[in-house]
Design goal:
single chain, alpha+beta, CBS-domain, 3-stranded mixed beta sheet, 6 helices, about 35% helix, about 20% strand
Amino acid sequence: MVVKSRGLIHPTGVAHAGTTVREAFAECVSRRVLGIPFLDNEDEIIGRVSVRHILKATCIPDHMVHGAHLLGNLIEGLRIPDEMIRTIFAMPVDEFVIPAPAIIDSGAPLVKILAIMEQKNTPYVFVVDDGTYRGIITRMFCVEAMLKVPDV
């Protein structure tokens, strides 16, 4: 069984300048993906909006990341306050855009998809054909397709 990207593509919405974090996160949650493309005024993908990147930049101080293994389970005083969440959700995603996203075309074979994910250190790639965004492929979508290969 040869797995091609066409069967792995899941359509998503996109982010533009001014899209809020809430809007981007809502799209990611509704599509069960960890990021969406960020498009310029000409609808060209120029970056990606990553849930992980935004959470790391806004919710987790670097010293907590470095000392995560020292944190106990009883750190209620260190919760993320509701007002902070509302503030983060109102922010535009523009300042969190990661440039140079991983992009493939819909004819890419599975091995190329996985190799590009590794090369770009990302759990997903965007699919673009003739300048048109088609959707996203994640590692989990790849594994799901691989699980369909029958046992011998």
